[in-house]
Amino acid sequence: MSESINNGNESGAASPGWEVEIPVQELDRSCRMPVLFMLWKAAGWLFLGSLLALLNSVRFHAPDLLAHCPWLTYGRIGPAASTAIVYGFALQAAFGVALWLTVRMSKSLLVQPGYIALGAGFWNIGVLVGVVGILAGDGTSYPMFESPHYAVPILFVAYSIIAGLGLVTFMRRQVKDLYVSQWFLFAALLWFPWILSTGSLLLHHFPVRGVAQVSVAGWYATGLLTLVLGGISLAVIFYVIPKVLKRPLHSHYMAVFAFWLLLFFGGGAGVLSGTTVPAWISGLSAVMSFFVCFASVLVGLNLIRTVGADLGRLMSPELRFVSVASFAFLAAGVLNAINAYSSIAEVTQFTLVLPALQQLVLGGFITMALFAGVYHLLPRVTGSQAPIEGSVNLHFGATVLGLGLTICVLGLGGLIQGQAMNDPEIPFTAVTKSALTFMRIETVGSLLLVFGSVLFLVNVGRSICPVLCCGPGGLLGCLKEDSVEEIESAPAAEPKAVEPAAPQVAKKASKKVAAKKKVAAKKKQAKKAAKK
Amino acid sequence: MNNGLLLFFGILVAMVSSWFGFVHSPQLQFGKQLPELDESTGASFPVPRSGAANRGRDIYRQNGCASCHTQQVRQSGFSFSVVIEDFGTNTVQLSQLLPSLSSQFTPSSPLPEETPFRLKEGIDLRTAEGIVKSLTEVGAVAMALISPSGADIERGWGIRRTVGRDYLLDSPVMLGNQRIGPDLSNLGNRNPDANWHLVHLFQPRSVVQDSVMPHYGYLFEKREITGAASADALRFNGELVVDDEGRQVIPRTAALDLVAYLLSLRLDEPIFEAPGEKSATVESAEETLVSEQSGATE
User: Under an 8 A CB cutoff, do A215 and B1 touch?
Assistant: First the structure.
């Protein structure tokens, strides 16, 4: 193994504190190649997925748009868009962010970054095979698990490589204390193969009978959203807020309690309501939604206490993505619990409220948290400037506006549609018409989201390009020591050069860090002097 | 707690318990469920679909019809109705009584010719029993019926709610969760006209104005008309259906299979878990209501 912990020790042996500590730049550099590759691909999938979603939205204005081609029919574009967004973008970006967080918080170098990049490559092949398979008519029709059976093994192998090496990195951690973000990451990384293999076996290869399929598929989708993607998103939130505010989390125990609540109840909340699945499943699921709501409130309170008097900073460039994500998480927890209440569900079932709530979770909470993570790590991992601020502002604005519009319009439309649907005096054509107005307004939201995804692609591309393809720290250059050090000593990287790793360790390690800062500063001065 | 191993076991317990709850238990409940056999007729429920209909289900899946159509029917409760099976001989008293029970009658209106006659619908149990009692007193034979109620059922989407057993023979089960189009559980009953469905699939807007359903023209073959039109070509109300370029339209096997599947969708059989309409006495009806509320019929 070329990059081991010893490597780090050698380069940092200048002061007593360095013997076990690896400088953050080196930590960041160890995950540079695979993480940037994943983020770049993820941004691409997000763009593609949003574009497909826009196409389907436009179809409520012109139903025959591109309808002559079976590959582009409404019922295939929808699942293809959701697969591109969930598997191509969300999961991939989540893995990238999770790897970086793991490295940073365990303070150990990423194990075998080359193999991880290879795994990421497989992952992208798997997603591509899935999306093309769906367009060709091989979709499974299970929401969130639409990829054809032959795409799933590719995803599984790819995931095993990425997560396996991520776990090895985690096991080699230099910091024994676990921060709550690590708990969430660990749970998410274990939960995903568990649901993926169960789903693949019991839905594709040895399909269970009848409605049991619906239950398995619902359990898969809920676990994927709440525990895998939701878990990694919460890890980002719990990491970034204390980090940016430079203060420890208000209550470790509250966070831990919320973690266990989510872990035990999140996997079953909202599996499916309806009269067709056995009543006990919907009942159990509704009870679980209530506990998840409780956990969301706990998380919200904890974060608010952490922010304390700094409420004004919630919309600052470093925190705004995370703030929106946290708010959406809280709102989703509460709204889902309300929606599990049977007299509410009677109205909202089968209506646009469902996609609205899903957008709140997937778009408002998960995507925003992932954006936050990506923008937080980009300048650190690339070692160059942060993305241009104006462009990030625009991305934030377009995305929040697009999400807000989509969620509100669909939610409101769904309520009206549901009321009408429950009144047998209103003919069904009128019910559809009542919803149609809202679906048509929603197109504006989809358009804004496409615009946002383009900006994200540009922002990520602009940061990555100097590192991955051109510039002194190019794809090959980043493996060579000297060229990297040049980037690190560039003035732009300086403010971010040395940081405490995990927020809770910050207190204990603060002395060490102070010492490190001095050392690093001295080193740099010396280097600059040497160059002159 | 900073012990990674303990965390690992905690997560493991959560994974296993949620698996038992949502994967294993439903499987225990449905895995061994068999179609219900009617001993007297030898028919089984659910009725197995034909080969064409089974292939059609695959076309339905491929094209994602479930993203706009559900196949699950809800029921919000029960309603009662009164049916007169025989008017008896005391017609004079009966004609005096009827106007007080239903606004369809005036004291001078004749008795309906056909029996059984549905006198009242959508009333509660006590009212129904009262009416039956007063009718019996004047010598008529009447009974109260209990039937599932709810908007879905009144729209004609089924005579009862759907239950797990309805989907035993289907894989994948496509319940759907969006009703952009109507529920299709009972389509074969509501609209058994195969030709209408073909025309509707070819161009929904030719039969339903302002429909937002996409057209499925690719399930049809377009052929130039040379001489007489083909016998298989799509016709509607006797007229040949043509595409934009004036070519005749011939359904491919996929379209025919899909329509066979659509017509095989029926929700018109009562079933033990969810009975349709049946006669009700106070006791039996109350039993049904109580067991329904506690979810015991599942």
Answer: no
Number of H helices, E strands in chain A: 20, 0
Q: Chain A interface, mutation test: which of B18, B76, B184, B293, most A Cβ atoms within 10 Å?
A: B18
Res. B298 pLDDT band, cuts 50 70 90: very low
Interval A366-423: pLDDT, tens? 999 999 999 999 999 988 777 888 999 999 999 999 999 999 999 999 999 999 999 9
For B46-63, what is the mean pLDDT? 94
User: Would you say the ipTM is above 0.90?
Assistant: no
Count of positions (residues) in chain A: 532
Q: Looking at the complex, does the CB of residue B24 fall below 8 Å from at least one CB of chain A?
A: no
Q: How far apart are CA B187 and CA B44, in angstroms?
A: 20
**Distance in angstroms between the alpha carbons of the first and the last residue of chain A:** 36
- For residue B75, the chain A residues in CB contact (below 8 A) are 275
Q: Which of B148, B165, B183 is the last residue of a domain?
A: B148
Q: Indicate if B116 and B157 belong to the same structural domain.
A: no
pLDDT in tens, B143-182: 888 888 889 999 999 988 888 888 988 989 999 989 999 9
Residue with tokens 């990423």: A110
Integer angstrom CA distances of residue B253 from A195, A262, B32, B49, B198:
37, 49, 34, 17, 11
- Rounded distance between C-alpha atoms, residue A56 and residue A62, angstroms: 10
Residues B137 and B243 in one domain: no
pLDDT of residue A262 exceeding 70, the answer is yes
| Residues in a beta bridge with B117 | B84
Residue A307 to residue A241: CA distance in whole angstroms: 8
Q: B203 is in which domain, residue-wise?
A: 65-74+153-292
Q: How far apart are CA B296 and CA B39, in angstroms?
A: 24
- Predicted TM-score (pTM) of the model is 0.87
Q: Out of B22, B154, B162, whose CB is closest to A275?
A: B162
Mark whether B136 and B210 lie in a shared domain: no
Classify residue A148 by its DSSP letter: -
Torsion angle (degrees, nearest 10) of CA A70, A72, A77, A79 = 30
Token representation of residue B74? 């809800």
Residues B167 and B287 occupy one common structural domain: yes
Would you say residue B242 has pLDDT above 80?
A: yes
Specify the pLDDT at position A35.
96
Q: What is the DSSP letter of A18?
A: G
Asked if the model's pLDDT at residue B285 lies above 90, the reply is no
Its CATH architecture, for the domain A22-467, is Up-down Bundle (1.20)
Parse chain A into domains and list their residue ranges.
Answer: 22-467
Q: Which of A169, A199, A201, A254 is nearest to A87 (CA)?
A: A199
**B47 contacts chain A (CB < 8 A):** no
Same domain? B140 vs B157: no
Rg (CA), chain B: 26
| CA-wise closest residue to B109 among B90, B89, B92, B95 | B95
Q: Which of A210, A218, A349 sits opposite B168 (nearest CB)?
A: A210
A147 contact partners, CB below 8 Å, separation of at least 6: A83, A87, A126, A127, A129, A130, A131, A133, A134, A139, A140, A155
Contacts of B181 in chain A (CB under 8 A): 432
Percent of chain B with pLDDT over 70: 93
Residue B282 pLDDT class (50, 70, 90 cuts): low
* Pair B206, B276 in one domain: yes
CA A294 – CA A330 distance, rounded (Å): 9
Q: Provide CB contacts within 8 A for A397, sequence distance 6+.
A: none
Which of B 152-191 lie inside 8 A of A, CB atoms? Answer: 154-155, 161-182
Co-location of B183 and B246 in the same domain: yes
